[in-house]
Amino acid sequence: MSRRPLVGVICCTRMPEDPVQGVAERYLRAAPFVGADFVLVPSLPDISNAASILSRLDGVLLTGSPSNVAPHLYRSADEGDGPFDPRRDEMAFRLISESVEQDRPVLGICRGFQEIAVAYGATLRRDLGEAQRAQIHHTPLGLPIADMFKLEHRVDLTSGGILERALGGSSIVVNSAHFQGVNDLGNKLAVEATSADGVIEGIRPAGGERVLAVQWHPEWRVAENPISRELFAWFGLLLKGASMREAADLVAEKATLG
Question: Which residues are catalytic?
Answer without folding.
Answer: 110, 217, 219
